[in-house]
Amino acid sequence: MLTLLNDINLGLIVLNGDYTLSFMNDYVKKFFKGNNIKDQDYFENYIDIVCDEYKEQEIKKRKDFKINKTACESVCKIKSINNTSLWIKINRTYNSKSDKYIISFTDITYFKNLELECEQSKNLNDKEYNHKTLFLAN
Asked: What are the backbone angles phi and psi of residue 21, rounded to the nearest 5°?
């Protein structure tokens, strides 16, 4: 069953109640390859690859998740292997029946770039509209 989880395009990490690694699929290993994250140290060390402007947010989310064990999600930018940045969405949930923390990672870089392009286009259109309005007003 667990080998099936290696075939999905989603990073999946399962931690025991004491935060030791129970399972990490191959996608996560590829995703973070070269970033010096050791399997057993994931919960503490993934912050090292988070871009500076998102570190504080991720540290707070991680701490709240460990203490309160309530589901949460976040979006942040990480440093990838080839010195580019990737946008990831992190979902965190806790299963009290099995005392396991479940964390998933989704690469949303493509969608985030589209969102940023749309935002830039909108800003350019707004700027042009304002210039046209000023021109017509005179």
From this structure: -70, 130
